[in-house]
Amino acid sequence: MIKKQIFIEGKNIKNLESFFEEIDRVLTKDLDWDTGHNLNSFNDLLYGGFGVHA
Description:
Elements: H1 16-27, H2 39-47
């Protein structure tokens, strides 16, 4: 199993909205949708098997 490293740029995060923008930039790469900017959809993204986790 190959482990993938994902880097979230902390300097881009200043509040909750910018956190979701950074997460969308990194984790929804090449998808035509984003996290919906809530923690439930963020959790789905981490475990859902799509985006960078496909």
